[in-house]
Sequence to fold (109 residues):
Amino acid sequence: MRENIRLALSTFPDAETARAISNQLVSGRFAACANILPSIESIYRWKEQIESANETLVFFKVSEERQSAFQDKLRSLHPYEVPEIIFIPVAAGLSEYLRWVVENCGQPR
Fold:
């Protein structure tokens, strides 16, 4: 059986916010795992101005089945007006790991 996994990326204003939201998403089984990478620099256009900010990037491992629910939940928790929520399909990986992701992104028990 082929497991359909997505790597979801989102940036946050700081590590504390990223950690709190990541805990809620993993606890609620919206994501199997969250990897928090603190202190990235982002340069972007926002409301016709060039902005820069120090942010925290999080990689989430999500099953295709839970992708929509994950996005809705992250959107509801995120402090940004328009948060970065990007999904990248995982083409291949260790089958046991991919199965683990799917098993840990199910409905809460």
